[in-house]
Structures are given as C-alpha cells and as structure tokens.
Amino acid sequence: MKRGNWKIRIFIGLAIVAFAFIKKCSNTEENPYTGREQHITMTSDQEIAIGLQSAPGMAQQHGGLYPDEKLQTFVKKVGNRLVNNSIAKDTPYHYDFHLLADDQTINAFALPGGQCFITYALFSQLNEAQLAGVMGHEIGHVIGRHSAERIADSQTWQTATMGATVGAGDMGSIMGSIGQNTLLKNGRNDELESDELGVLFMIKAGYDPYEMIKVMEILKAAGGPNRVPEFQSTHPDPANRIEKIKAAIEKYQE
C-alpha cells in the first residue's frame, strides 16, 4: 500500500471512530425515573413497538404461554400490583406479564416497553412474594431502559469497529473486543440496578423484600457447583447480589 493511501485510511478510520463517540455524547439524556445519565437513541414509543413485535417470537422460543389461565391471571395480578404501587404507573410503558410453558429453563426477562416473562421452571419454585421480587426486577429493566441503552451502545461500537477496521486492519477486532467487554460490564450494572428497583417496588406494594434474597438463593442453587465465574457472566454472582439487596432493603425500608 502506498504511504499516502495508508495515511488517508488512518484519517478516515479515526474520523469514523470520533463520529461514533461524538454521536454517543450528543444522545445522552437523564432517565427521569432513575436519575441516571444514559446513551439512548430511541423513543419510548419505539421501545414499546419493539417489545410488542418481539413478544410472540420470544414466547415461542420457550414453548409458548403456559396453558393455565388461572396461573396466567395470577402472574398478571402480581405484576400489576407492583406497577400500580410504584413509579412504573407514571411511565409511558405498556406493562404485561406472561408465564411461559418452558419447564426446563429457570429464567425471567423483560423486553423493551414493558413485556415481562417468567418460565414455569422458575415460577414453580416461588411463592407470591418471591414472584413479586422477580417481576419487580424485570419492571426495573424496563424503567431503567436497559435494552434501549444496550442497543445504542451496540450501534456505537459497530460504528467504531468499522472505523478501526478502515484505519488499521486488525485493530477492528480489538475494538470489537473492547466493545463486548464494555457491554458485559454494563449488563452487570443493569442487573444490580434492577435488583434495587425490585426491592423498592416490593416494599411499595406491601411485599416482604427479604424474599428477594431467597430468590437469589434459588438462582444460586440452580447454577450448581459449575457456575460460570462472575467475570465471564453477564449477571453478577447471586452471593454478590444478595449483599446489594440487603443494602437496598436498609435504604428503602422505613
């Protein structure tokens, strides 16, 4: 490659990388419900639309909805109790709560905009207060706009990686690796923020927040002795989450 062309590639690559991070800074806003500064590139209406469009496919991946209307109604009742007694009711999101048929995978998750799910495998091990803890945690993900933040971060790293690839060949893969590690770290923080919000929602709705600790113990037992180390996981270790939950209980309990 001619030296002049090499310089041009470096310049273009650096310009693309700079553009990615300037754009990120310009799209930073304060979350009105958590007070945290976030990089967001979509509106709440777009989050709701993404969640509604994705919900059927996500349910299908877990065997569809659990075929018991009484249990579905129970899950919705607990979820709505949390929403109606917390700041969630003041948000623009459309909350709905679903019990999935999957009886093998212990899991719960939320889509952007308010669609919350729990598998029967996890649900079957919980009492009502523990279910409230899980659903409160998922509502926390929605209010925290964690999916929207991850999407925006992913877009930034895609642009930066493209710039690094143009400017320095193999540096693109390095930038991609840095981006993945950053998203991984933020994902853990999302979980901890949602745990704290879940504790707050439980207290506001009249549930015993210490039941959230028992949920962590259930998750820890489900992980077994071969659990992936925390630094390799998108979720903090349950033992570390318990300490944070205890601190949140002391913070919010009157």
From TrEMBL:
Pfam families: Peptidase_M48. SUPFAM superfamilies: Metalloproteases ('zincins'), catalytic domain (SSF55486). One of its GO terms (molecular function) is metal ion binding. Belongs to the peptidase M48 family. This is Peptidase family M48. One of its GO terms (biological process) is proteolysis involved in protein catabolic process. One of its GO terms (cellular component) is membrane. Its cofactor is Zn(2+). Keywords: Hydrolase, Metal-binding, Metalloprotease, Protease, Zinc. Residues 72-247 form the Peptidase M48 domain. PANTHER family: METALLOENDOPEPTIDASE OMA1, METALLOENDOPEPTIDASE OMA1, MITOCHONDRIAL.
